[in-house]
């Protein structure tokens, strides 16, 4: 009893002290600037907002002028600097690019990507970039892209849309992910896995991309020893990552083995095989198969998630803005002449769809496929905002927040307005990548940007012309708390054919 009475008395004494300390610590702070608690740091605020972490980070960044320092529990050693300031982004991704390689910390977190372009630095990154760019600029590439996309629209997309038209709800996010996955596999592996087929069967290697997104975000937040302990115990997020990696390996190794032994090789794998044989002793570790697997996986990540995520949010935004849908249809009729009958259009013709391009840019601004990026300087640095970063200090750049900052995009920053991307002359308005980093920024800007826009215009135009898409009533759509901004519960819609 004496012990219980002592504990009770102690609690009565400590509670008022904590309240006084909390009120004092809040003085001069604007909500929702997080409180720094004794021992725990800012962790309680993160835990309270774990299901809306990107929006919470945006609120804090807005309150703090675009940059703030997150202080974790003292025993976790996870202090980091968050920013959405375009000046800081320009500094890190362009002006002081050489001081911010991906680095060993990034490669630890994203170890599943191996030596692919996402985690590569210096000469290896240059090799990846140069080789990939050569393939995308090949004289036959545009014709190949058109043929591949329209074939998948005819044989995969339309049959699924027809099957669900006037009937059950369809998850468009799932459809877009399958569509993009089939297309990027065809480009990289010269193999179409046909995951977009009637019945929408489950394919573990295709869904493995989605299951990785949340565990990889939590690796940014948790101390390294904690997630490495999970890996050793084979539990939790690390078990999920291990299963996804095994699914990737089984799928990709089986197809690159066939492709590399074939006399009729696709140029992508052939080009990287040549690079491996020329540069192995200089910059590339591991076997030929592991290098090709890592290369393929990085390209597949980019090809699947960029287009499918943008299209998902585009149709969610259009579903709430019928005037935008009407303007896109008017533009298609005027520029493509498809008023009475649908026809596929070329890559060159896609550039005429300016308003649709603006709508896609708005989707990417509000919901960038990659929500954040991790950087660490090789040498100590002072950002344009005045914040100091020590050597190897962790910097998190929130691409999600940049597109939602009133100081960057104006008072209407949360509105879906394709018109903001159209100049008075009717052309697409260019915005610098440090203000619009949906495709990254600086020298690491996504090489497949134009390829993605062409593919997305073809898919969006084909669906909007042939079908009325309505959001399912009562279906709540919000971004997942993950590296990739997938919709948490998918995008459930009702389809009906247009007359």
Q: How far apart are the termini?
A: 80 Å
Percent strand? 5-15%
Instruction: State the domain count.
Output: 1
The mean pLDDT is: 87
**Percent range of helical residues:** 40-55%
Q: What top-tier CATH class fits best?
A: Mainly Alpha
How would you classify the helix and strand content by structural class? alpha+beta
Low-confidence stretches: 1-29
Strand order of the largest sheet: 1-2-7-4
Going by CATH, what is the homologous superfamily?
Answer: Cytochrome P450
Q: What do we call the CATH topology?
A: Cytochrome p450
Number of helices: 19
Biggest sheet layout: 4 strands, mixed
Shape: globular
* Overall CATH architecture: Orthogonal Bundle
Number of strands: 9
User: What string, H for helix and E for strand, traces the elements in order?
Assistant: HHHEEHHHHEHHHHHHHHHEEEEHHHEE
């Amino acid at each position: 009893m004496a012990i219980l009475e002592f504990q009770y008395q102690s609690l009565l004494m400590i509670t008022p002290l904590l309240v006084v300390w909390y009120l004092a610590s809040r003085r001069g702070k604007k909500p929702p600037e997080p409180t720094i608690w004794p021992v725990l740091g800012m962790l309680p605020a993160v835990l309270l907002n774990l299901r809306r972490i990107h929006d919470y980070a945006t609120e804090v960044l807005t309150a703090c002028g675009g940059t703030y320092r997150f202080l974790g529990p003292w025993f976790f050693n996870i202090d980091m600097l968050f920013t959405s300031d375009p000046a800081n982004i320009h500094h890190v991704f362009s002006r002081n690019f050489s001081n911010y390689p991906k680095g060993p910390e990034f490669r630890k977190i994203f170890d599943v990507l191996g030596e692919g372009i996402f985690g590569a630095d210096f000469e290896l990154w240059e090799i990846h970039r140069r080789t990939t760019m050569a393939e995308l600029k090949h004289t036959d590439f545009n014709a190949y892209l058109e043929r591949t996309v329209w074939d998948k629209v005819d044989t995969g997309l339309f049959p699924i849309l027809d099957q669900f038209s006037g009937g059950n709800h369809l998850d468009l996010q799932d459809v877009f992910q399958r569509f993009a996955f089939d297309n990027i596999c065809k480009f990289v592996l010269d193999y179409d896995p046909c995951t977009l087929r009637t019945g929408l069967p489950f394919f573990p290697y295709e869904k493995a991309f989605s299951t990785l997104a949340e565990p990889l975000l939590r690796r940014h937040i948790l101390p390294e020893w904690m997630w490495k302990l999970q890996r050793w115990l084979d539990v939790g997020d690390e078990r999920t990552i291990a299963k996804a990696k095994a699914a990737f390996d089984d799928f990709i190794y089986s197809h690159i083995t066939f492709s590399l032994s074939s006399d009729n090789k696709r140029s992508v794998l052939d080009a990287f095989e040549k690079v491996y044989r020329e540069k192995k002793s200089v910059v590339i570790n591991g076997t030929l198969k592991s290098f090709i697997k890592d290369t393929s996986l990085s390209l597949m990540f980019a090809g699947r998630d960029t287009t499918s995520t943008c299209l998902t949010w585009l149709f969610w935004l259009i579903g709430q803005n019928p005037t935008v849908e009407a303007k896109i249809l008017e533009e298609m009729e005027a520029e493509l002449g498809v008023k009475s009958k649908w026809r596929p259009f070329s890559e060159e013709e896609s550039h005429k769809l300016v308003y649709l391009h603006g709508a896609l840019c708005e989707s990417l601004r509000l919901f960038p496929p990659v929500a954040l990026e991790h950087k660490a300087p090789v040498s100590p640095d002072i950002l344009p905002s005045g914040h100091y970063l020590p050597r190897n200090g962790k910097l998190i750049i929130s691409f999600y927040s940049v597109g939602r900052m009133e100081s960057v995009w104006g008072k209407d920053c949360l509105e879906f307005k394709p018109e903001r991307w159209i100049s008075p002359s009717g052309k697409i308005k260019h915005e610098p990548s440090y203000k619009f980093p949906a495709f990254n920024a600086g020298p690491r800007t996504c090489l497949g940007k134009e390829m993605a826009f062409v593919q997305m215009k073809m898919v969006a135009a084909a669906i909007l012309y042939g079908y009325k898409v309505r959001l399912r009533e009562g279906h709540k759509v919000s971004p997942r708390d993950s590296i990739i901004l997938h919709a948490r519960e998918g995008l459930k819609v009702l389809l009906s054919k247009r007359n």
